[in-house]
Amino acid sequence: MQALVKNNTIEAYCFPGGVIQALLREIGAGRPGLFTHVGLGSFVDPRNGGGKSNECTTDELVELIEIDGETKLRYRPFKVDYAILRGTYADPRGNVSLEEEAIDMDSYSMALAAHNSGGQSVRTGTRCAGSWRD
C-alpha cells in the first residue's frame, strides 16, 4: 500500500485516529460530517494540505468553518465501500460476537457506515455459532 501511495497510484489521506473513529460514527448516523478543533494548525488543516498524502489525492475532505466565532474543521463524510470486521463467534445470519477480542475498535460504527453508504460488511469469526444448515 505504501508503494501505491508513494507512486501516486492511489489516493490516500492521513487523519488522526480519533477523528477517523468519530467520523465513521457520523457517517453511520447519516450526519453531515465531524465538526471539531482537532487538527487545526496540523497537517490535516486545509491550509497545510488537508491530510492528503500525495499529489493524486484531490478531493477536499477537510474544510475550515466558523461556529460561534471559533474556527473549526469539518471532516466531510465519505463513502465506505467495505468494513472488514473480526469477531470471536460468527453465525449463519451474520451476527458476530466480540467477547474474546482485545478491543472492538468501533466495529458497529464501521459496519453501520458501510451499510449506510451502500457498502458491505465482511465479517470473520474464529469459531462458528449455531448451525449452517438452518
Automatic annotation (TrEMBL):
It holds the Pfam family CoA_trans. GO terms for molecular function: CoA-transferase activity. It comes from the Bacteria. Keywords: Transferase. It comes from Escherichia coli. The keyword Transferase applies. This is Acetyl-CoA:acetoacetyl-CoA transferase subunit beta. InterPro entries: CoA_trans_fam_I, NagB/RpiA_transferase-like.
